[in-house]
Write the structure tokens for this entry.
Amino acid sequence: MDLRNVAIIAHVDHGKTTLVDELLKQSGTYRENEATTERAMDSNDLERERGITILAKATSVEWRGIRINIVDTPGHADFGGEVERILSMVDGVVLLVDAAEGPMPQTKFVTSKALALGLRPIVVLNKVDKSDAEPDRALDEVFDLFANLGADDEQLDFPVLYASGRSGWADTELDGPRKNLDALFELIVSHVRTPKQVADRDKPFRMLATTLGADPFIGRILTGRIESGRVKAGQTLHALSREGQKLEQFRVTKVMAFRGLQQQAIDEAEAGDIVTLAGMSKATVADTLADTSIDVPLPAQPIDPPTITVTFGINDSPLAGRDGKKVQSRVIRERLMREAETNVAIQVTDTPGGEAFEVAGRGELQMGVLIENMRREGFELSISRPQVVFRDIEGQRHEPVEEVTIDVDDEYSGAVIEKVTGARKGELVEMKPAGAGKTRIIAHVPSRGLIGYHGEFLTDTRGTGVLNRVFHEWAPYKGPIPGRRAGVLISMEDGVSVAYAIFNLEDRGRFFIGAQEQVYQGMIIGEHSRDNDLEVNPLKGKKLTNIRASGTDEAVRLTTPVRMSLEEAIAYIDNDELVEVTPNAIRLRKRFLDPHERKRQSRAAG
């Protein structure tokens, strides 16, 4: 069967997964009476809850006798490791751009990777039926983006479609018939090249593994595109590392291909198709699976290095072990090593004591998703504040700098620019009106300056601002950046919080807990209104007497406590604080020091 392999690229919330839903429906993948779900490609619980694509996934549709393998790529740069691997499997990309917002930072990140690989793009301007859509401006911005990213003449001569993914139509003209997605199917078939591997069907088998998975019935499975030859169940292959070292010889127990949303076992697969193989025990991502006559591995795409590190440790608080079942450091290490094996953008190293592990990754969101998955699996953890990874380049210390794109109401733009370019050491690159009373600000800001900024940004813009960020470059160290300005309120007792005590402490700051919540000594229960830390007693009840007095026996009304999400808590803490994560709770606390360390610090303080 004639083949096409294509990836769909889009910024978060530009309608990529919804468009794939419509492609599946209109290609006849579903039966007429089959129950379908919205955003079918978002198979992960977290993806459905957050509305973002985290894992790159493939599907396959058949249109007029041609098989089209479609790869859904993550829109967020924190999950860029998925993108860098997956783009090597396709021969073209569909770039989906919101006609109102234009190309955004995450679009730029993935597009730069695609253009560098020589892939020819198809541009689809989505949501053109919205009232604030400006397709002409968005198209100009896409062309400028391609030119800035060094696209060649063939890539700059890209075809354009106007579409509404939710309504299920795409046309070559803005005022077209608006009936279906046939124009997109036709363009994929005519514009995306047939895989060049198809000509190599009769050569020995070779395949580069791009994603790793596990099946409870058939064990370890690897997915990739067949570069040459054919493969069938029962065939003997061997795995080669990136350096050409022979890792293992194995017998293929199953060959599976994507057919709609499901993977089906097939008798034989040939060059150009995207398939999943089972039977290996050691081979992993970026290894070459090949015929035993081949001893030269396929080149694997280099992966961008991590930019932040977070320390994962055991939960050693007084409330440890009450919620989760997986609390030992050995179990935590096994889980992190398993994650590092499947996710090439994560690196795990042991700390000297062996009780904690340094996990390096792309950003706070990637770390937040990993921690959220672990807590749902029953783990209890203590998490440190994210630290930026520094590099020595030509003897000079360099740090990661991110390009930040901010859309805010005009009235808040001054406050945002002051925060970003002031203490956070950012550089303003561009500022322009974005229509509808909004301003678009683009700045280059050190990653250190952005840790913990998002909550402050939402406060400054009354929740109306939108901030997007993507790695830009390594730049010389820009000097110290001040951390959180406010101090914290720390519990000085163990027990259950009392409404009366919290009510009388409310003028000291805002609280993170309510009444009747378990607290312990050293737990952070609120934010101080001043810049120093303050120990308070949230257990202090009202003195009881047999005398009733007017005005003193009124019902206590507490201000609603601030409940932080996991990412907000990780970004909020300071260097001497930790986030305690359990399946049912997220708590903040001070680091517990052993007596010798506490004595040493007090001696140093004089």
Remarks:
- Confidence is low (pLDDT under 50) at residues 38-42.
